[in-house]
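Figure S4 source data
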Amino acid sequence: MTTPTRNRANRRTEILDAAASLFAARGFHGVSIEDIGAAVGVTGPALYRHFPSKEAILAETLLAISSHLRDTAAEVVTRGADPAATLEALLDLHVSFALDNPALITVHDRELGNVPEPQRRRIRRLQRLYVEEWVTVLAELAPRCPSARLRAATHAVFGLLNSTPHSGGELPPEAMRELLRSMARAALESVVNASSL
């Protein structure tokens, strides 16, 4: 038997997924609470049982994915004994995110400024921590490379991987996955190899 708590959690997830798709397609200001409610089969005001505002929905959408990426990356890095294998696992994590969530990437790029300031700071902090997980691993592979360079390289690779809202439908999913992985790997290897010269 499904509990009321589980139903509520499922409904919140359903609302967040629908809102992300709508925000990506129409922009934050082009979507009303009524639009989000209609997408999940309820009236707009019924959403207030789950979220206090449209801004809260946007904030929770971006906080949830930022938290998930950071927590999963931290687990990968903590478990990893070999830095090269750990980097491959981080690549797998981000490639899967980029292929599975192009709408979230679009929403983050366009709408972060509409998130209330306290939540925006939390999102930015989680994102910085996520980057530092990558920098930690890259520093093991390239100990002579300055952290600032490794951080810049990580951001550049994220830019490549997060191109899926524009390129994700051009190739079959597995071909796109391999293309993204190979390009990101090559970019990171160039930084690691340059630092060993």
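Figure S5 source data
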Amino acid sequence: MSNEDLNDLPRRKMVKPPTGGEATSRAKGHTAVKTAKRRTQSSAKWLERQLNDPFVQKAKAEGWRSRAAFKIMEIDDQHRLFKKGSRVVDLGCAPGGWVQVALKRGATHVVGIDLLPVDPIAGADLIEGDFTDPKIAEQLEALMGEKPDVVLSDMAHNTIGHKQTDHLKIVGLIEIAVDFALRNLKPGGTFVTKAFQGGETKDILLTLKTHFREVKHFKPKASRADSSELYVVALGYKDKGPS
């Protein structure tokens, strides 16, 4: 699950202004939000961004659970991740936008997992827990049944503003997602993971290039312009079998 989506979850209650209203029009077509009692300046900026984000508005209008749905659509349009009958595992799936897209675009079996609870989605098996926990891993493996054709990871830590710490956390999440993909993907399968510009190490990319036919970076238009977020797309898994 991305920082953007993680930040959306606990703050959705803030969309309705307090009595008296604090939203004002700064310019035609733009909603400005002022600070108010119990609302910090950062909260006001977050709300203003949400109210004026065309992808947030479009997601609500079309029934997607998050604006991140458009990111995976763009990646799928470019690389054809989801083929009819494909099996998909989504690591860090909350609130479920990527699961929705995978099912809509042909996947017949989707298993999603996240530390946060996710409302049920018809056609998907959803787990609340940490997939690195052996007990949860067993549950995930049982639900998968067969090896997946696609492994997705939109996992991301909330950044704390300390560059080195944030970098280590980002790299750590990518590493565990890569490890999961290499252990579970079907030969010829696809792996997609969130990364950040300068966030992944050369060793991770070298590992992916060793095990996949093709590895690319992709910056969706749905990613905010001021975000360093991008995605690594690894195509054509070359399963070498047990070592």
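The beta strands are 23-27, 30-33, 87-91, 109-114, 124-128, 150-153, 190-196, 212-218, 229-237. Residues 6-28 have pLDDT under 50 and may be disordered.
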